[in-house]
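Following up on my earlier thread - several people asked me to post the actual chain instead of describing it. Fair enough. Here it is, all 360 residues.
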Amino acid sequence: MALEFNPILPVPPEDIPLYHARSITPGNNWHGPFVYGSLHWAFGEVGQNSLNYPSDWHLVACYATAGTNAETGTWTEADWTHHPQGHEVNASPYWDGTSSLVYLAYKRQYNDLTRQICLTSFNMNTKAWGTPAQSGLNPGGGYTGSKMIRLSGGTFIILTNTGTQRDTTDFPTQGAHYITYNGTAWSTANLISADNADIFASQIQLSAGDLTHFYYWLAGFSTNTYYHRALTSAGTLGTEQEILRSYTAHALGVPTTYNGTIALPYADDGTATTTFWPWVAFGSLATNTNPTWSTVQVSSSTRIMPPNTPDNAASFNWIMGGTDLYTMWVTPQPAAGSNITNDIVYARYNGTGYDTPVLY
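Reply from S.P.:
Thanks for posting it. Predicted structure:
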């Protein structure tokens, strides 16, 4: 059976030689490939220590001809002179799969008072950046993030923090909020949780009927709790639900819907050690404001690289093959100088558990 990757997967910066040629420090956040016409597109960030990017981080758009060029890494950057300035290791793209426009929510700036959540577009047909729409909402410093979906009527919903940096313990000090943008105007910030929510470790998902699912992490010193809260198409928030408690404080994998049920991947060890295993939280049903949650360990034999950054978390993803659901993950990074590489493995969900992992 042929396996197809989730359409939004990370593109490792080292696979794009363009940035090595410029001596650019790659960012943590790459998305793609988006296949449009004869080209493959990847969107991400590049940063400091560069002659071309001397002051801060920027969003970039790169393309390669489908086939040999995309596979060997012959990529070209588009519209370098108009790329948006920003620093956000958790920037979020939206593409409908057919149009020429890709939208990206990101945080402008990093360490000054002008930082705010913005939304911009990139046209894959004309290879040009659009004009960013600035929300005026300051999401705070550090690794506060933004996750975005688009409703059927065209309005964007962005999950984010507000207003302050992390405290000295490196825990976030602001609650989770969402804001909306209808193409013309921004809403004010709407509170989801007043607790210390970390959007760096978050996900957002759209279900049938324009039901939006928010997933976020509330930090603790001994355990960390992952929560869910849904927003209806009428703008009503459901009850805040505790999905699970974990010793890990890491970003969640990309959620999907399988046979009407939410499947949300995460990493855990259960004992506060450094050995992490892949798990999945299932929420039934995806169309419910308050799903019923259960958890399944994907493997107890093949470990996972802790997804403590969004790029690692995005590599904890889904492979769809026909009607089957597969979970895919990356094994821990070997010791330096060992001449051993990470492995990509996957396992098929059989309805009650997972089959033996297979090397991809």
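The CA atoms of residues 117 and 165 lie 14 Å apart. That should answer part of your original question.
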